[in-house]
Amino acid sequence: MKRRQWRDPDATARFGLVLHQTRHPLKTVLSRANRVGMMYAPLAYSNPHLFRDALRYAPSFPPEAELAAWRADRENEDGWPAAKRLRVALFHYVFWNDWVAAYADAQIKIEDFDVATVAARAGLKTPKSDPAKRRRRPPKTDANHHDLAPDLANVTWADIEAVSPFVWARATALARSHGYDV
Description:
The protein is mainly α and about 180 residues long.
């Protein structure tokens, strides 16, 4: 098979440094599933064929039974019930994180985010100017938070396992590999 310039994990061209930012997977899946508007793009990004065939990397490609449920989700005849939103968000989390992890030079948990550490890993120099003299932007006042929908308020890993056992197993393995308890 011909090697791709940028799509394979063994790509011939890549960024100088790839930092993979992670967030607790259960929070990530619930956040994605919570906003129906967020479902349309992730429906495409949750496509296992996109990662396997176009991006050339999908180590957790699901079995036919779970693919059939994903295909049925694409028909969208039943609106956006919780199970469907969870499956779309779960697939997106797993395929995206599998793919990025294949390229990443390092991983940073958002819960442990520290600007100095990120700058050091990226090879950025510490600014020499006095921080007090730097122009500061006023803090944003708009909210980037939505309370969980009632049908997602008490979702656990067990609920997500029922939606897609194979992809759930990969999600929990990714969670552990990124240092999260599941």
